[in-house]
């Protein structure tokens, strides 16, 4: 029997991993099919269409043929999928950097500087240290991300403990990073010999270069970027740290009232954000340029802001936004060469897309004139959580923040082995109901028997008042052991 126990434990562990993976994939599918996601997709699609229409008017007024321009733009993008992904790779990481900071209510406008610092750190390791062919690129990527994290942590600490606004500090440090790296490659790290007149470092060792995976452009940095998307999505939605970052971003005062340290999370948010930007710089040097040259970046950090805005600060949205902008860049070259439309028109389209995404009321007004109304306020979305406890199943279903925001209500359902144990609807705008909550908390519990022992499940709903708005904390306990906790913003009394 003892020989079978390790096999049984391995099978159980494998089943647990499979179950968690299935649950994660199902949660992604649920988001993609939710009414809120459909509404956001319509906003983004409408913004792109409007941007193309306005750009067509501009091209026509400038004497260019919009039809020929868009045809060559489309054909140039479709015919070069490797170029699309090549351009999208650094934009994915830069967009994630900005989006993660946004989740914590911060605006990391200095991703460009963090990209430069990550790139120079990876370059130094790449040409000064000789390592095995597989280990070398991994070490370079880690060092690059670490340097970007340090550069992002500085404004994070200043914002958290000294009150210095991150927009100012990240922008100042961005210019500092660009100037510092220019000095480094012009003097102490400059390549000597035949190319001494160019401000650049020596070329990286071949062991540090990221090899191509398809065509002459696309390299393994794409895999790094996709893994970063999965990692950031998991961090934000599946970890305690991600919950705390979102809580601080939604309402810093309410989060602190609920026991979360906002200063620590603000510093960590900008630090991790900088790490993602540093990773973007490292993979670009290792996969595209092969060495650090002064002012090498075409503005990847600034483009990351547009990617985050287009993706609504969602990791998967950043992936889609980066691919879209990558297609614009890939097709823009063809449009310029064949239709003779200035390449700057791609930047005009990109800017207009962001403008319309950031101003959804314009789209709403236009659709309203066309008789199309997006009634997202009536969409009831729920989050369902399943727990397998021994041979029993606990299912918790509650309304999402969007429902709470719109109706100021919280719908709560708890099932145990398929039997409904709790069904409550809390109207947070009802003052009588509010006054009846003891010490700002509403408690619901039920008791069951598990393994001949009495087990009590308890759901505690806590109102967290604030001068700006209010939030609701939902906690689920099993015999006083916390199973789950959510912070839902209610938008005020």
- What Rg is obtained from the alpha carbons, in whole angstroms? 26 Å
Largest sheet features:
4 strands, antiparallel
Strand order across the biggest sheet?
3-4-5-6
Q: What share of residues are in beta strands?
A: 15-25%
Poorly predicted regions are 375-381, 401-407, 429-439
Which structural class do the helices and strands define?
alpha+beta
CATH topology grouping of the largest domain: ABC transporter involved in vitamin B12 uptake, BtuC
How many domains comprise the coordinates?
Answer: 3
Shape: globular
Indicate the percent of residues in helices.
Answer: 55-70%
Averaging pLDDT over every residue, what do you get? 83
The CATH class label of the largest domain is Mainly Alpha
Order of helices and strands: HHHHHHHEEHHHHHHHHEEHEEHEEEE
Spatial separation of the terminal alpha carbons: 62 Å
Total beta-strand segments: 10
Instruction: Based on the coordinates given, report the CATH architecture of the largest domain.
Output: Orthogonal Bundle
